[in-house]
Write a structure and sequence with these properties.
Keywords: Chaperone, Cytoplasm, Ribosome biogenesis, rRNA processing. Binds ribosomal protein uS19. It comes from Limosilactobacillus caviae. It is found in: Cytoplasm. The chain is mainly beta. The chain folds into 2 domains: about 5-90, RimM (Elongation Factor Tu (Ef-tu), domain 3); about 100-160, PRC-barrel domain (SH3 type barrels, Roll). The chain has 3 helices and 12 strands; from the N terminus they run ββαβββαβαββββββ. The chain has helices at about 30, 70-75, 100, and strands spanning about 5-15, 20-25, 35-40, 45-55, 60-65, 80-85, 105-110, 115-120, 130-135, 140-145, 150-155, 160. A 6-stranded antiparallel β-barrel has the order 1-2-5-4-3-6. A 6-stranded mixed beta sheet has the order 10-9-8-7-12-11, with no helix packed on it.
């Protein structure tokens, strides 16, 4: 089964088994809801953890897992990633994509010039920026706006772009 990161446990909170999670998902309310199951990344098989309750607090999500009632139970979870299974991913609207769908796609211009592969996604502000790794050139930063991203073809693992003046 495939898993995708939704946050990282950065510390414990209090003595009653809560953990402090730095969320890495756009779907905080859906992912961190009582009754949902998250998976703790570990060396062996991921450990399923059912959320008893969760709340946002000072830029973090405080999560209490069912059956883990004191700090000693959750101390070992610190610095581990929390994941959802691929089956638990929410469907997205047309034109929206999960990061794992975009990273690794080939990038070409509208006239067929191959530019490279998307190696990471930055989220600095109003829109994401796709970082394209190019052979023997510096990385290309593509703002994810309609003027630049013309087509995303997941079936062919390809993104078609139109380079605006000053991008290259």
């Amino acid at each position: 089964m495939e898993y995708y990161n939704v946050g990282k446990i950065v510390n414990t909170h209090g003595v009653r088994g809560e953990v402090r999670v730095l969320a890495t998902t756009d779907f905080i309310d859906e992912r961190f809801t009582a009754g949902n199951t998250l998976y703790l990344q570990q060396a062996e098989e991921p450990l399923p953890l059912k959320i008893e309750k969760a709340r946002q607090h000072k830029g973090f999500v405080l999560v209490k897992f069912a059956g883990y009632d004191n700090i000693n139970d959750v101390e070992k979870f610190r610095d581990h990633e929390l994941m959802v299974s691929a089956d638990d991913q929410q469907p997205l609207d047309d034109g929206q994509y999960y990061y794992h769908q975009i990273i690794g796609l080939d990038v070409e211009t509208t006239d067929g010039q191959k530019l490279g592969k998307i190696k990471e996604i930055l989220s600095p502000g109003a829109n994401d920026v796709w970082v394209v790794e190019r052979p023997e050139k510096r990385d290309l930063l593509l703002p994810v706006i309609d003027d630049v991203i013309k087509k995303v073809d997941l079936d062919h693992q390809l993104v078609i772009v139109e380079l605006m003046e000053g991008l290259e």
